[in-house]
């Protein structure tokens, strides 16, 4: 788990055992350190202590974020009375946090009394205060007293709590009273006649709250009295396993999880950070989390589609049309910003980058529209959206670096689904673990008749001619760099494909070419959905909820091959030609970022570093900025939306060249106005918490359902022709062209990038 709060501990493991994380709320008591030591000794716990009046956690938002980082809370003893809010502070708020932030709590002395008063008890003074008094505690070996014998406990209190108006011990002693129906008595002290029966322990009837009046940490409390700590932790673990959304899992296979959840299906999104054979992220600084979008009970999420051809914006739920509006292009971005702000959440788990929100793609052509570059009019009959997002309300998020799974929902009263899904995944942990350890590359789907597939790959002379055309424009002063691409087509006979084929192809790609930004998407009307199978190494743009943004452009590629070492790759990538390609994009990105965040808020934190991936070495730079225009640690201000920055940065500079607008206009002609579509665009998410993360759509195959081509095939011996129907998968590839480029080398680079994706179809 990662948190920007320095108080919050990192998740630790000892062997295969996860160290418990416990928050201790200190009410300025002189015995607090003894309680912390007891927790550490008995539970091997990592304990973080804060005071009841800690100013950092006075707002609900900050307090809830803090709770989300722990497994349980201990509310400690202290002076004063629970009727004085200054004496209990944060402890009193533990009992009323929303369900999705609720944690198991053990209240001790003052914490116990706060629990009791929160659910109907009264506070009163003891006739004889009990300070340093050791008494026998009566119990029935239930709940936290399970399996315990005689308990002798040390008391330090002048006040007590009553569960009913009469001072007499309630009968039956161990049942809730009408005044406090939610509190179940667990233990009593009946040693002092003048005080009468004094309640020593209680639990909440339905919530994970327990409390003891005595001090289990005292040197004179018997070992049986201290043993309640272990029993409380067992109760805590059981409750967390049943109801809490987050849990640890040592070996995690995203594919297996998806299939256990009956994915994929329509409006399916999986954003996956690739992992290596040890289960660690292939590049943790860019991709350590995976996101599985889960459908509501209706089976369909809401979906937003935008079409450049007629500038219409439609909202669907599955195949059910809900709303349509006509708008100029800029309004789609205003709509996205307004939509995300209307759904804004502030109380999700801070360590998870995604709580729910819009997930989808923006095509290259939609990006061109933001810089007023005209494109060929698309065929309106194909009805393919240029921007498409689905609104994910239920999700499973995996933190691969810390082996933690979070099941979450932003739907109202959806706790039953969270519990059901958490239980399903935990019950099948052994299956998920076994799949994660196999590291097998799934075979080509048997239904996929590769020999009959018809790839249409640009020839070397044709592509090299386009490279020279780009160089002519560069020498004429119209551009510094042009990112040339080619849209390669692979036609597959319809009879050999099935609805599961895209998913099977994705499961191959994620093993053949694991990358920080893997993605499987099936979005749209069931008859014309887009199927995206992606394994991109390149982050386009991300921004945190606090307003820190980052670009990671990639320019410069060396294919891995026999005899090619990292040293050799570094030599090639440090050539003036490769560095020039990267440098121009870095300066272009700095330009885009300065336009939004202003002077003094842009930093280049990595300049032309060599990074290794499964099939290539690449030259990568990192540019960062602050959307707030000031320190992102200023928690008193709400950071502005990252959507204006996203819009102003499209299309990705690493797929256009510089200057961007003129280069894109020239590329339209060189590429013969063939739409790039999803390829060269971006895909990712807009989180309801305010963050966002988008990858450049490269190393990707995609196809549209319903985009079918019919071909007349002659029968043998001149017999009558038959009609065969094909679906078309598109795989784009290309590279940056500069004045230093060699046309032949550019063609070879394009083919190397192409082959890293085409292998998924069995091509090599």
Short account of what is shown:
This protein is of the alpha+beta class. Strands 12, 13, 14, 20, 21, 22, 23, 24, 25, 31, 34, 35 and 36 form a 13-stranded antiparallel sheet that branches. Strands 15, 16, 17, 18, 19, 26, 27, 28, 29, 30, 32 and 33 form a twelve-stranded antiparallel sheet that branches. The chain has a nine-stranded mixed sheet with strand order 4-3-5-6-11-10-9-7-8, with helices on both faces.
Walk me through this protein's architecture.
In the C-terminal section; belongs to the anthranilate synthase component I family. It catalyses: chorismate + L-glutamine = 4-amino-4-deoxychorismate + L-glutamate. This is aminodeoxychorismate synthase. It is a single chain. The chain is an alpha+beta fold. It folds into two domains: 13-244, Class I glutamine amidotransferase (GATase) domain (Rossmann fold), CATH 3.40.50; 254-555 and 588-608 and 625-761, Anthranilate synthase (4-Layer Sandwich), CATH 3.60.120. Helices cover 26% and strands 31% of the residues. The strands form four sheets. Strands 12, 13, 14, 20, 21, 22, 23, 24, 25, 31, 34, 35 and 36 form a 13-stranded antiparallel beta sheet that branches. The longest helix is centred in the C-terminal third of the chain and has 22 residues, at 576-597. The radius of gyration is 31 Å and the shape is elongated. The two termini are 39 Å apart. The model is unreliable at 1-6, 13-17 and 630-636 (pLDDT under 50).
């Amino acid at each position: 788990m990662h948190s920007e709060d320095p108080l919050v501990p990192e998740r630790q493991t000892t062997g295969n055992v996860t160290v418990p994380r416990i928050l201790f709320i200190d009410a300025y008591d002189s015995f607090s350190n003894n309680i912390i030591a007891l927790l550490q000794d008995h539970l091997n716990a990592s304990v973080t202590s804060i005071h009841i009046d800690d100013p950092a956690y006075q707002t609900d938002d900050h307090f809830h974020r803090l709770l989300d980082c722990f497994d349980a809370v201990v509310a400690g003893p202290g002076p004063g009375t629970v009727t004085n809010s200054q004496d209990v502070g944060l402890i009193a708020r533990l009992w009323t946090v929303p369900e999705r932030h609720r944690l198991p709590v053990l209240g001790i002395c003052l914490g116990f009394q706060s629990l009791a008063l929160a659910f109907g008890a009264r506070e009163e003074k003891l006739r004889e205060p009990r300070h340093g008094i050791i008494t026998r505690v009566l119990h029935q070996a239930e709940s936290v007293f399970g399996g315990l014998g005689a308990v002798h406990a040390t008391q330090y209190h002048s006040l007590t709590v009553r569960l009913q108006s009469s001072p007499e011990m309630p009968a039956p002693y161990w049942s809730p009273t009408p005044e406090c129906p939610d509190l179940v008595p667990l233990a009593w002290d009946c040693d002092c006649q003048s005080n009468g029966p004094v309640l020593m322990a209680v639990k909440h009837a339905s919530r994970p709250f327990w409390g003891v009046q005595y001090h289990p940490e005292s040197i004179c409390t018997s070992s049986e009295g201290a043993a309640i700590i272990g029993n409380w932790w067992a109760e805590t673990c059981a409750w967390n396993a049943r109801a809490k959304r987050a849990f640890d899992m040592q070996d995690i296979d995203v594919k297996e999880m998806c299939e256990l959840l009956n994915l994929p299906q329509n409006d399916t999104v999986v954003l996956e950070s690739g992992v290596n054979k040890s289960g660690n992220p292939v590049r943790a600084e860019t991709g350590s989390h995976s996101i599985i979008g889960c459908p509501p009970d209706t089976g369909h999420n809401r979906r937003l589609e935008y079409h450049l051809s007629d500038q219409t914006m439609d909202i669907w739920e599955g195949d059910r049309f809900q709303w349509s509006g006509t708008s100029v292009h800029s309004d789609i971005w205003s709509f996205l910003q307004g939509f995300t702000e209307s759904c804004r959440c502030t109380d999700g788990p801070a360590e998870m980058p995604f709580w729910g929100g819009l997930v989808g793609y923006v095509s290259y052509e939609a990006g061109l529209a933001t810089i007023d570059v005209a494109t060929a009019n698309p065929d309106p009959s194909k009805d393919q959206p240029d921007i498409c997002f689905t609104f994910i309300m239920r999700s499973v998020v995996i933190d691969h670096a810390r082996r933690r799974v979070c099941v979450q929902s932003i739907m109202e009263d959806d706790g039953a689904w969270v519990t059901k899904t958490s239980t399903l995944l935990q019950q099948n942990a052994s299956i998920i673990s076994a799949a994660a350890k196999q590291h097998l590359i799934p075979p080509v789907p048997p239904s996929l008749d590769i020999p009959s597939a018809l790839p249409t790959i640009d020839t070397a002379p044709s592509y090299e001619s386009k490279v020279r055309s780009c160089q002519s424009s560069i020498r004429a002063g119209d551009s510094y760099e042009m990112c040339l691409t080619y849209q390669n087509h692979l036609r597959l006979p319809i009879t050999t494909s099935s609805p599961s084929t895209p998913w099977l192809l994705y499961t191959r790609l994620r093993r053949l070419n694991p990358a920080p930004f893997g993605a499987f998407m099936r979005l749209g009307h069931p008859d014309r959905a887009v199927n995206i199978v992606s394994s991109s190494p390149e982050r386009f743009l991300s921004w945190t909820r606090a307003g820190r943004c980052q670009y990671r452009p990639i320019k410069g590629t060396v294919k891995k091959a026999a005899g090619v070492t990292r040293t050799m790759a570094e030599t090639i990538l440090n050539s003036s030609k490769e560095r020039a390609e990267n440098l121009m994009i870095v300066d272009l990105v700095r330009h885009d970022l300065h336009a939004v965040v202003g002077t003094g808020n842009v930093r280049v934190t990595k300049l032309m570093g060599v990074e290794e991936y499964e099939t290539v070495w690449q030259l990568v730079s990192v540019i960062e900025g602050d959307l707030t225009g000031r320190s992102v640690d200023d928690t008193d201000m709400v950071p502005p939306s990252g959507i204006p920055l996203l819009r102003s940065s499209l299309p990705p500079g690493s797929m256009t060249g510089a200057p961007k607008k003129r280069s894109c206009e020239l590329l339209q002609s060189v590429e013969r106005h063939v739409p790039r579509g999803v390829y060269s665009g971006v895909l990712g998410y807009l989180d309801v918490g305010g963050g966002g993360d988008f990858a450049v759509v490269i190393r990707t195959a995609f196809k549209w359902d319903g985009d079918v081509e019919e071909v007349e095939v002659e029968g043998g011996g001149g017999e009558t022709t038959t009609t065969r129907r094909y679906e078309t998968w598109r795989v784009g590839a290309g590279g940056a062209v500069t004045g230093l480029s060699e046309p032949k080398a550019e063609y070879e680079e394009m083919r190397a990038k192409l082959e890293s994706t085409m292998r998924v179809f069995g091509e090599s």
